[in-house]
Amino acid sequence: MADAYFSSLDIGTTGVKAIIVNQSGEVVSKGYQEYPCEYPKPGWVEQNVDVVWDKICIACRKAISDLKVPISSIKSLGISSQRGTFIPVDKNIRPLMNSIVWSDGRADKELQWIMENIGKEKYQEISGVPASGMWSYAKIKWFIDNRKDVFNKTFKILNGQEYFLYKLGAEDIDTDPSSATLNGMLDINNLTWSEELCDFINLPLDKLPKMGPPAKMVGKISKEASEETGFPVGMPISIGGGDQQCAAIGAGIIREGMAEATIGTGMAIVAYTETKKEDKEGKVLIGGAAIPNKWNMEGIAFTAAASLNWWKDNFLTEEIKAANNLGLSVYDLINLEASQSPVGSNGLLFFPFFQGRCTPDYNDNARGGFLGLSLMHNKKDATRAIMEGISFEVNMVKEAMESVLGKNFDVLRLSGGGAKSVLWCQVLADVLGRKVERLVEEDCTVLGAAVLGAYGCGMFNSIDEAVGQMVHSKDMIEPNIKNNDLYKEEYSIFKNNFDALSNNNVYKELAAFQKKWF
């Protein structure tokens, strides 16, 4: 396999990353393009997939233009994509409307119907995920009930992964369990579509893509796709997996007891399991792994770095100016500012529930805010409190997942933009009371897609072999025991106050007030 390079795409919610890596997993070139979401009504989130495709092509051409070897050296392409975003298409695989994005919140009434007609316990028993209006299932019911004109013309309801693989040249329009977890209509025991759940909402199974394995070669780059992306005609392309499942592969999470936390716009912890774990209390998400016939256990927080970005964009204008004048990243100054506040942020708590609370409470009405503000507090305290508040939510997710696993994780690796901050990683280690491991390639999602694409296209004999060659640890951050003692006490206050606001319907009343008046 001399001079072999592997490419991948991570088609996210707000942008696409294209990379090319060598056989050691080192990124040798990359491209990135942002694209918008559309918000046609309050709570609705859509995307024009033609715009997304144009940006994918630009990102690919950028990665290829920076490559210092012949493009014939690129042997495979794998894809990671956002989960729970779906696109109705006609028989010519042309979109019939905008895609409905995973974060779209239009399906409140449909969620209530699911709870009343299927039942919370039965739904999670079948699908592996708690009932939520965020999953595709409720929004597909909305689509069937409210856009009958479009539904009747629909040949297939595709996830983004299948649509863009088709655009690249895929002959098989297949999906896989790791990409379909957040569709919310899997038969989790058998890792296929649930006929029972589909029947409940009058969704014929033949309108869904065939369920196949992850890391499967599905075609080759077509002449048209080659002209648009720059990839060579005939280069093999493969299903990768869902974004967080690709991140787990890119972090080397391939045995039970290992977990990976991605700290990006949102936060997700993914743990590999050999068998489907029982979760009678409905705490976590159980889904397919990006390894065929295996499972992942997952916990999600909807906002992580998004909270820090909100703070930056609205309250750190002077820091942004200073960073620009000094030629520095604004995040370097944010880290510096946070480091000047003591551990515990002088008793200031931050709740990062800007888009509701996910694992393990699933309270869509939860809201964010500061608690404990006094005249002694300043921007430094608030900046650090945001990092600590997100870390407390990570701890809530971790505790829920370990209770379902039945033991503590023996390896916890960090990825995503947040892993670049040594301070934030130290805060996480101190809050969790565990050592955390960072990786050479922090963007595990797009690396994992490259690993899966290379394996799926026959470049490696196994995923284990590909991971062993392409995924590398950088360093280990040990917890400070004294800091952990303080954080244990503060975390207890954090949890107790969340429970009090939730259990006494404060969040529910506030959300109702916001919807009524704003």
How would you explain this protein's 3D organization?
The strands form seven sheets. This protein has a seven-stranded mixed sheet, with helices on both faces. The termini are far apart. It has 19 helices and 23 strands. Helix content is 40%, strand content 20%. With 518 residues, the chain is α+β, with helices and mostly antiparallel strands.
- Spans with pLDDT under 50 lasting ≥5 residues? none
Q: What's the rounded overall pLDDT mean?
A: 95
Distance between the termini: 60 Å
Helix content: 40-55%
Strands across the major sheet, in which order?
17-18-16-15-21-22-23
Number of helices: 19
Overall geometry: globular
> What is the rounded Rg?
22 Å
Task: List how many beta strands DSSP finds.
Answer: 23
SS-derived structural category:
alpha+beta
Key words describing this protein structure:
518 residues, alpha+beta
TL;DR?
The protein is of the alpha+beta class and 518 residues long. 40% of the residues lie in helices and 20% in strands. Strand 15 and strand 16 form a beta hairpin.
Architecture blueprint of SSEs:
Layout lengths: L4 E7 L3 E7 L5 E8 L11 E2 L1 H17 L8 E8 L4 E4 L9 E2 L7 H10 L2 H8 L8 H11 L1 H4 L4 E4 H9 L5 E2 L1 H4 L5 E2 L4 E2 L1 H6 L9 E2 L5 E4 L2 H7 L6 E7 H8 L7 E6 L3 E7 L11 E4 L6 E7 L3 H11 L1 H10 L3 H10 L9 E3 L17 E3 L7 H27 L5 E5 L6 H11 L3 E4 L4 H13 L6 H8 L2 E5 L3 H23 L2 H12 L1
Parallel strand pairs: 1-5, 5-14, 9-12, 15-21, 21-22
Antiparallel strand pairs: 1-2, 2-3, 4-7, 6-8, 10-11, 13-14, 15-16, 16-18, 17-18, 19-20, 22-23
Helix pairs in contact: 2-4, 10-16, 11-12, 11-14, 12-13, 13-14, 14-15, 15-18, 16-17
